Amino acid sequence: MTVVKGEALRSRDLYERPPKYELFFPNFVMKELCVGLFFLIILFIWSYFKNAPLYELADPTKTPAHIKAAWYFVGLQELLAYFDPYLAGVIIPTFILAGLYLAPFLDPDPIKGIGRFAWKERGFAMYSFIGGFAFWWLLIIVGWYLRGPLWAFYWPWEDHHIIKPPPPPPWSFPLPAGIAYIIAFFGLGITVPGVIFPNFFYRMGVVRYVITMFLWTFMIFALAKMFLNNAFNLKYILVTPWFNI
Amino acid sequence: MKWVPLGLVRYTFCLGGLSVFFFLLCILTGPFLMMYYIPSVDRAWADVQDLSNVVPFGRFLRNLHRWSGTLMVICVPVHMLRVFLQGAYKPPRQLNWLVGVTLLLLTYLMAFTGYLLPWDNEAYWAATVGMTMGENSPIVGSKGPFSILSQDKDIAYILRGGTMLGQPSLTRFFFAHCVAIPGAMAGLMGLHFFNIHKAGGMSGPL
Amino acid sequence: MGETVAKAEKVVKTTRREALRKGLFWGCWGIFIGFAGMLGISIVRYAYPRIVWEPSSTFKIGKPDDYAVGSVTVMGDRRVFLIRTEGGFYALSAICTHLGCQPIWEQDNQVFMCPCHGGKFYKDGINFAGPPPRPLPRFLMTFAPDGRMMVDKAKEVGLDFILKV
Fold this sequence. Notes:
The complex is a heterotrimer. Chain A has a domain at about 70-230. Helices cover about 60% and strands about 0% of the residues of chain A. Chain A contains 8 helices and 1 strand. The two termini of chain B are about 20 Å apart. Chain B is mostly helical. Chain B is flat. In chain B, helix 1 packs antiparallel against helix 3, helix 3 (about 60-85) packs antiparallel against helix 4 and helix 4 (about 95-115) runs antiparallel to helix 7. Chain B contains 7 helices and 1 strand. The longest helix of chain C is centred in the N-terminal third of the chain and has 46 residues, at about 1-45. Chain C has 1 helix and 11 strands. Chains A and B meet through strand 1, helix 2, helix 3, helix 4 and helix 5 of A and strand 1, helix 1, helix 2, helix 3 and helix 4 of B.
């Protein structure tokens, strides 16, 4: 190590650099700032040419026919069109958040695949997460591109000026069928994977397994309800005097 | 002296760092917008019109604020996806994952309250829908299942500052967007970074 | 002998000190949590406005002859639909029972359609398609002494209510 006279001795001159490592500051921070600068330039150009949306002044006396949320909430709006408000607005987001919060505690393995994409070892966790994530973006795309005035479904080649006639009245499961459907759905959803993959069950442990499978089945349950609503015009699976699902 | 592995900045574009970057950009541009914006139902929309048509650089500043916020709303979930796929929520980083999910929620709340502020049609009806969602929550909402609170006591009443949307609501959204949520986010972000440091650095390429 | 006594005394002292330390520790936490809880409750209480300036729930509309038979009048500033049938009048809430947007009256199909999430209601307020969970509520209507009609949004009535004229 040579120290040039007159220059201050810096800490990076004193320590040997470990192989394949760099200093957090300044090397790493500078790289991050370079990426930031790149996006700053893009953002400046974008902001110069594309204006932020501003619609007409709020009119509390009339909802416009073409109303649509900002794009990042269109997925939620699309979800809300299938469920009662307490479900789509409160219960489903709560369950999504609960699933996210619980993720570190539901994963039984503390070390597998940290810091890399371990598709083989952590396939179930990774594909579940990607599935849910992709579904959220799919909802946004459907809501943004395939919904026209009065939140009716329009294919891209259909004219939005033609108001679609109202659909036929929907139907609901009678109460016993609804109870049977829900019990069967959650019962099978929670037990069947454990029977087919006993190793998975033993590795998870009962509590983790049940919570994971409950959240998973809930996701599929919501999807199935959306499918039944679209395909068979079903309104409710369960009708009770206090709440409907 | 802190050494980090080489090649952390790679094809996934350091999404967490970018989220902070866009957050800082919003923090920098926001107060300037506040100089011309008054959170009043009679003036808010006109102020935003003024800002984008009369004030020099006003439109550019608003665009910058809006688009960097939009990019943050994209970056934060994708950052979470990256973290999950790389197993970076596993020990010793569980606490950081919890803080991160809270930050994601706050980012969405920030986006929501932010686009209510211009008080245009989109804002008004989005606020209506959001508040009615609160009204329909089980137990604590007046219209939800098993409700125990009346319409002038439920959770939507606190959020709106009344039984209908109006001036108190806009004032509350303004407070949430400009003070409460960014404050909470800044604090949690500090915790987030401190946790990375404590857990011994990043789990892998960003 | 004396040594053992001293030792036992020492043990007692240490355990007592330990208990004191633990008590202080949890006591401090208790005080902290108590204060934080009180702060939280007072913030929630602070957010409840005691007085709100909102329009009265009761309002006067025109005389029966002002509205044609079979017409639907949208009173947007009151969020009410006034409907005249051959038998008389009824007033429907113009707030979608799903998530609070205002349905739009479609004259061609004779239905109310909500723009936000696609809820549909018949002319009598019954929800028949889309996500709304309940029919549009009907409000009490009465005659004022001067012959004009009054609507009271605070009082909901049954689906068969009609103000006969």
